[in-house]
Amino acid sequence: MTTVYDILFFFPNYLIIKPGLFCWTVITYPFTVIAQQLGLVAKTKKIKTNKQEQQQQELLEEDPLVTREIPAKQPTPPSDTEDYDEQTEFLKQQTIIANTIKSPTSTSKYLIPPPQRLYPLSRNPERRRRKKILILDLDETLIHSLSKGSPRSFTSSHSKMIEITLNNISSLYYVHKRPYCDYFLQEISKWFELQIFTASVKEYADPIINWLESDLIDSRKQKHKYTSAEDMPFSPKVFTKRYYRNDCTYRPGVGYIKDLSKFIKDEELKNVLILDNSPISYSLHEQNAVTIEGWVNDQTDRDLLNLLPMLHSLSLCIDVRFILGLKSGEKLFEM
Questions:
Q1: Tens-of-pLDDT digits for all 335 residues of the chain?
Q2: Are 272 and 320 in contact (CB under 8 A)?
Q3: Distance between CA atoms of 199 and 283, rounded to whole angstroms?
Q4: What CA–CA distance (Å, rounded) separates 299 from 283?
Q5: For the stretch 185-219, what's the b/e string if a residue is b when 16 or more beta carbons lie within 10 angstroms of its beta carbon?
Q6: By the number of CB atoms within 10 A of the CB, which of 91, 105, 120, 282 ranks highest?
Q7: Residue 319 — left, alpha, or beta (φ > 0 → left; ψ -120 to 50 → alpha)?
Q8: Is 6 a catalytic residue?
Q9: CA 40 to the chain's CA centroid
Q10: Per the record, which residues fall in region Disordered (predicted)?
Q11: Annotation says 276 is catalytic
Q12: What is the reported pTM?
């Protein structure tokens, strides 16, 4: 009987039914995939599975004579959130262990907090603010002097003969101003509080400083047509303080060092600059120093003039050390 049945349905089965099912599967395959991605098929299968399990459970409970082992419920898989929390906790523990065992990296010393900003939010030139201090060197920075009769003496329109008395002995010196010295002092006096710090003795320095100061005041009088010092709206003193050789720190074999911390508090050094041609002089305060080449007799020198744009910018910044310290490279970050 089975053989006759197989013979009768062989041709219809393989020529009509199975090809038809195959074509139906091919046609409906894209729709099946879309339904699976949307979760429609999965939900249907889950519903059928849950119903079958529920029916089996009811049959087991209704049969009082048969003792069967009730299948254990499958544990629900952890959600993505729980899995993420476990990974985070694991990483935290590993980090704590690593920090306890390992030593800090050598580069950690460079991770210092930088300044919030280099310049204030308002740079309005008309807004009055406290001036920064600019400390000026004298010899070979602003002037150059030669004793009378020296073979290196030269004539200059910006020169003056000054008598120096030291230990009751008088000497005559020709003092020559560096090119653009007067204009330089006139401009920077608008931006800074000016001070002089020289490694020379007081008896030698004071007459020269007085000469520079008097020439600058005279030029102000002529410019604004003031008849006397009382008529001027500003102080007749150009240099607010003067420091001499006895204010320096002498180191044998090195020379005279200008230690600004003896006169200025550490927290105020951010507002202080020193202009000097000798690196030894500012060796304790390299981050406050503006360097300049020493001058002797070059009448084409323009170094003072070239410094004006930079000095004007420094007069507006918050901390001069964060800008001047850049020339030191990595040394700045090792503070």
A1: 556 666 666 667 777 777 878 888 888 888 887 877 776 655 455 555 566 666 656 554 554 444 444 444 455 555 544 555 666 666 566 665 554 444 444 434 334 444 455 556 555 656 667 899 999 999 999 999 988 766 655 555 567 888 888 888 888 989 999 999 999 999 999 999 999 999 999 999 999 999 999 999 988 888 766 655 555 555 668 999 999 999 999 999 999 999 999 999 999 999 999 999 999 999 999 999 999 999 998 999 999 999 999 999 999 998 999 888 887 665 555 55
A2: yes
A3: 14
A4: 29
A5: bbbbbebbbbbbbbbbeeebbbebbeebbebbbee
A6: 282
A7: beta
A8: no
A9: 58
A10: 53-84
A11: no
A12: 0.60
Which CATH number fits the domain 132-334, given the four candidates 3.20.20.70, 1.10.287.600, 3.40.50.1000, 3.30.1850.10?
3.40.50.1000
Give dist(CA 229, CA 247) in Å, integer: 31
Enter the tokens of residue 141. Answer: 């920075």
CATH 3.40.50.1000 spans which residues of the chain? 132-334
> 165 pairs with which residues across the strands?
170
Tell which residue, 242, 209, 219, 190, has the closest CA to residue 139: 209
Residue from 83, 139, 182, 206 carrying the catalytic annotation: 139
Tokens linked to 247 = 């204010």
